[in-house]
Fold:
Amino acid sequence: MSRESPHRGWDAGGSLQSLARHYLGLQYRRPAWLWHLLAWLAGTLTSPSFLLAGGLLLNDARSDHPLFWWSLPAIVAISNAVCIQVVRQAHRRSPFPDRNAIRRRHASLAHACTSGLFLLSGCVSGFLPDMVPALFNTAGLSWPLLADALGCMLLACAFTLLAHPLPGGLHALLAYERFD
Structure:
């Protein structure tokens, strides 16, 4: 009966290089700052929310809530930058074993950061208090404030899901490589 090694992915008769590859996982491409900057630019510029908001603003920039509409591309850029920096710090403490781990970490951070910034911008600009009752028709409900809050969260989740399908994958692909 063969006994498995307690170190998954590395057998007891393996080389030192296979042990290092297992424990080190991914490493930064060099120069790291350049690859992370490239990943941020590519992730931000290919984000569907960034392209949609930017396209609408280029078509006609007049709006009843200009602060909100002009903040949408900035929200995507800021949340991508924050996620890249947090993922870099997490990778420095404990290297990620593969690109899927980076994608998962980036996605979870991006959803929280983007939703928070979207809600903050929407409430400060007055967009969400004006639009949510009109969109979801919450006037006749017994709990209109709860329905308004759920409507705000629904809009934030929709924007976030549209904003981050690609940036985490691009960051993992461009900024990290396997240890060789």
